[in-house]
Every structure is written in C-alpha cells, then in structure tokens.
C-alpha cells in the first residue's frame, strides 16, 4: 500500500516537473520568436527611414536646382530690363538736349517776332496818322462810316435771302407734314360706323308685343320709366324699336327686354328686377370694353378706374361718332405720327387714348370735358407729359410740347374722316340733353327723360316731396324754362308723373 502511494507521488511529482519544464520551454520559444519579430520590424523601420531620408535628399536637391534655375532666369530678366532702361535713359537725354535746342530757337524767334510787331505797330500808327490828316476823320469815325455803308448795302440782300430761306423751309415743312399725315392715314384703315339714336330688338313671336305693352299699357310704361327710353311697337313687324339719344340707356333697355322675353313673365315688379340686373351686367361689360381697348393698343399699366371710364366712352357719341372708337383712332394716328417725328410713341398713344376721357363724366358733372379730363388724369397720377399733350387738342391751353401738336392733328384727322361726324345729329342730341338738364334742375325730380325725338319730356318726381298740385305747377314751370332757354321746332309736351306704390308682405 505504501509502495503504491509512493509510486503515485513520484509520478505526480514527475508530471509537475515535466509540465513546468514544458511551459518554460514554450515561454522561452515565444520570447525568442517575439525578439526575432521585433528585430525584423526594427530592420524594416531602419530600411524605410533610410529610403525616406534618401527621397527627401533627392527632393531637396530637385527644389534647390529649380530655385537656382529660377534665380538665374530672374537675373537674366533683370539684366535685360537694366539694358532697356539704360537705353531709354540715353534716348531721354538725347531728346532733352534736342528740346533745349528747340527751346532756344523758339525764344530767338519770339524775340524777332516781338521786334517786328513793334515795328509794325509803329508803321500802322504812322499810317493811321497820315490817313486822319488826309481824310480829316479819326480811326473810329472812319470805321463807323465804313460799317454803316456795308450794312446799308447788305441789308436788302440779307432780307431777300432770309425770305427765300423762310419760304423754302415753310414749303419743306409743309411737304414733310403732309407726307407724315398721309402715311398715318394710309396705315390706319379702321372701319367707321356712324352711331344712330335707335336700336332694333327682334322678337321671335309677334304675341310678345302684347305682353310687353301689358294691360292698359302698364308694362311698356314701366319699362320706359325704368330705362328712360321710348319703345316703338308698330314701326316694324317682329321687332321693337328702342329709341333714345343715350346709347347706354338703349343698351340697358335691350338687355332688360332680352331677359324679360327669356323669362316669359312680364309685369312691373319683374321689369324692375330685370332692369336692375341689366344695369349690373352693363357695368361688367363696360369694364371689359375698357380693358379690350387698352389691350388692343398694348397699354397694360392703366389704372382700373380709368379703364372703367374708357368703357363708358363706348356709350357716348360726339357728332354721331362713337367716342371710344374715336379715341382709339386718335391713339393709333398719334403713335404713327410721333414715330415719324422721332417723338415718344408711348406718351403719344396714351395721350391720344385719354384725350376725351372727360366725356365719360361731362354729362354727370359740370365743366368742360377737357377740364374734367385733366382733373381725372391728375387724380390717378398719370404722367404729366401725357396731360400736357392732351390738354391742348381744342386750343383751350397753349401748345406746351411737340406732342400737343401731334394729338391735335390726330384728333382733327379722326374727326374729319368722311362720314365720321354729323353736326345735325350732335345738335339734336345736345337739345335732348339740355331738355333733361332743365327738368333735373328742379327740386323733387327723380328722373327726367326726353323721348319722341324731343317732342316729349317725361319727368318722374318723388311723391313724398311733390303733391298733385306741385306736379301741375312743376310742369308749367319746366315748360316756361324750355320756352325761354331753348330753340326748338314745333312744341314739346312736358309730362310730370307722380306715382305712389305701397308694398307689404303677408307672413
């Protein structure tokens, strides 16, 4: 038993010793391997550092060589510049010497000239003294007499030449102006249509005439009262003639009739409703007409208020000529004439379009259309050059710029075109407008319309302000004013209408 333990202990000790020796051998072997690896890395690092040092030496040598080469080039360039500067310095010295020599020559010449001038003055003084003795006149007197003689001899000749030049210039200016105006007229070929005082409204069914007239004529009276026109029912079959000197009233009446016929229900309440709708639509159409006119001329910076007033000119006439059409014509012609003369075409075009803008309000506000137009353009901050150009087209203001003459000429060209204007129609329309103004001047008048070609004046009064006796008295007073203030053929019927309407709703 003891031997077994002994052998076991010996084996155990032997295993421990063997393990220890094996581990020590392994560690010694690893340390040797690590030492060899470190030695190898040290050799590689030394080799690499040598390579880097060698490469750095080569780069340094290359940089030094480049620097030496560049320095050599700069030295060469400096030597070349130094040579050129020395050469220039020599040239400057030579020129300086030449300049000094020339200066000496000039000084000598100046001295000689001064001496000769003194001698000349002396000779001149002696000559003048001798002449004064011979002629018994001083130098100033002799000069004055000589100048007077030359002036007298030349005056007639100069006057004739000036007259000839003036005549030739006048002929040339007239020839050029005729050429410019002719060219402008030839280039502008817009059609011209004279405005009338009636509008035809077609009916698909003759029976509608009865509906429009209404029971005892109440519908036709309501339409005429609301629109201010006269409806002629028997002038032509299948149509109603709308008569009024105001194109805007005719257009509102026509549009209202279209709406009533389409609706089919024609009675006073519906008439009021449709007339109001027509007025609103006309206001929209007026804006569109103004915008189209401005766009046609290529004007896109016009204030919207002036655009609205331009549209209103479509429903205004001057001697039978549509005012908006006339304004567009003047704008085109002004632009073409300005282009021929080398003037500002943009200002000319705008001044031509806006020259009659005051006519959009002249029937509503007191004052000439020129004064109203100037106030409108100033109110909306329009260029002062445009105002100066348009304000002289009737001669009320002086021609303050070349474009003022252009606008006046274009206005005359447009108005003078064959068939463009009719004096008799303008006089007729003015008389109708004067009739309405007389009536509207009375207190308590709501509306006043001249109808039947000016043979009747219908005056609608506010019933709360004018009673029946007041209406009778007003008719007499209006008739008296017309007799004393207007000239007219035949007689004019003054019809003062006072109507009371009560409205209540059952709820």
Provide a descriptive summary of the structure in words.
With 507 residues, this protein is mainly alpha-helical. Helices cover 70% and strands 7% of the residues. It has 14 helices and 8 strands. The chain has helices at residues 2-135, 139-187, 208-213, 218-227, 247-263, 268-296, 304-313, 323-341, 345-354, 369-379, 384-390, 402-416, 423-440, 468-485, and strands at 198-202, 230-232, 239-243, 317-318, 321-322, 445-451, 456-461, 493-497. The strands form 3 sheets. It has a 3-stranded antiparallel sheet with strand order 1-3-2, with helices on one face. A 3-stranded mixed sheet has the order 6-7-8, with helices on one face. α14 links the parallel β7 (456-461) and β8 (493-497). α5 (247-263) packs across α6 (268-296) and α8 packs antiparallel against α9. The longest helix has 134 residues, at 2-135. The chain starts with a helix and ends in a 10-residue tail after the last strand. The mean pLDDT is 78.
Give me the strand/helix succession.
Answer: HHEHHEEHHHEEHHHHHHEEHE
Computed Rg: 55 Å
Distance between the termini: 136 Å
Mass-distribution shape? flat
Largest sheet: 3 strands, antiparallel
Q: Give the strand tally.
A: 8
Uncertain residue segments: none
Strand content: 5-15%
Give the helix proportion (percent range): 55-70%
List descriptors.
flat; 7% strand; mainly alpha; single chain; 14 helices; 507 residues
What is the fold's blueprint, element by element?
Elements: H1 2-135, H2 139-187, E1 198-202, H3 208-213, H4 218-227, E2 230-232, E3 239-243, H5 247-263, H6 268-296, H7 304-313, E4 317-318, E5 321-322, H8 323-341, H9 345-354, H10 369-379, H11 384-390, H12 402-416, H13 423-440, E6 445-451, E7 456-461, H14 468-485, E8 493-497
């Amino acid at each position: 038993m003891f031997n077994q333990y002994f052998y076991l202990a010996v084996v155990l000790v032997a295993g421990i010793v063997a393990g220890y020796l094996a581990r020590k051998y392994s560690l010694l072997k690893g340390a040797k391997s690590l030492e060899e690896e470190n030695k190898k890395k040290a050799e590689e690092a030394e080799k690499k550092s040598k390579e880097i040092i060698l490469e750095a030496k080569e780069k340094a040598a290359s940089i030094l060589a480049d620097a030496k080469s560049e320095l050599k080039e700069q030295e060469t360039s400096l030597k070349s510049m130094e040579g050129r500067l020395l050469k220039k310095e020599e040239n400057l010295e030579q020129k300086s010497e030449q300049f000094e020599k020339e200066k000496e020559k000039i000084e000598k010449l100046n001295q000689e000239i001064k001496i000769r001038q003194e001698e000349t003055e002396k000779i001149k003084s002696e000559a003048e003294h001798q002449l004064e003795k011979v002629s018994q006149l001083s130098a100033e007197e002799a000069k004055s007499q000589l100048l007077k003689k030359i002036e007298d001899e030349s005056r007639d000749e100069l006057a004739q030449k000036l007259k000839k030049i003036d005549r030739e210039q006048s002929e040339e200016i007239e020839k050029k102006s005729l050429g410019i105006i002719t060219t402008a007229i030839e280039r502008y070929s817009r059609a011209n249509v004279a405005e009338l005082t009636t509008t035809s409204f077609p009916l698909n069914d003759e029976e509608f005439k009865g509906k429009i007239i209404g029971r005892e004529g109440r519908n036709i009276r309501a339409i005429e009262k609301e629109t201010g026109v006269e409806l002629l029912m028997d002038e032509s079959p299948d149509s109603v003639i709308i008569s009024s000197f105001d194109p805007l009233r005719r257009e509102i009446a026509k549009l209202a009739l279209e709406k009533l016929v389409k609706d089919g229900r024609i009675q006073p309440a519906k008439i009021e409703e449709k007339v109001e709708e027509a007025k609103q639509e006309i206001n929209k159409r007026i804006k569109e007409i103004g915008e189209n006119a401005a766009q046609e001329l290529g004007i896109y910076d016009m204030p919207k208020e002036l655009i609205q007033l331009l549209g209103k000119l479509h429903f205004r006439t001057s001697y039978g000529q549509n005012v908006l059409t006339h304004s567009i014509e003047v704008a085109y012609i002004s632009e073409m004439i300005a282009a021929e003369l080398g003037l500002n075409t943009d200002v000319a075009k705008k001044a031509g379009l806006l020259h009659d803008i005051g006519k959009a309000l002249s029937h509503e506000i007191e004052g000439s259309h020129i004064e109203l137009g100037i106030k409108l353009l100033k109110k909306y901050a329009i260029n002062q050059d445009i105002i100066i150009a348009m304000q002289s087209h009737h001669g009320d203001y002086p021609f303050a710029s070349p474009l003022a003459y252009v606008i006046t000429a274009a206005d005359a060209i447009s108005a003078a075109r064959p068939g463009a204007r009719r004096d008799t129609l303008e006089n007729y329309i003015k008389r109708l407008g004067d009739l309405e103004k007389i009536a509207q001047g009375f207190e308590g008048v709501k509306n006043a319309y001249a109808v039947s070609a000016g043979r009747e004046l219908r005056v609608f009064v506010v019933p709360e302000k004018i009673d029946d006796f007041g209406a009778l008295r007003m008719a007499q007073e209006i008739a008296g004013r017309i007799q004393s203030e207007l000239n007219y053929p035949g007689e004019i019927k003054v019809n003062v209408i006072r109507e009371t309407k009560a409205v209540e709703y059952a709820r």
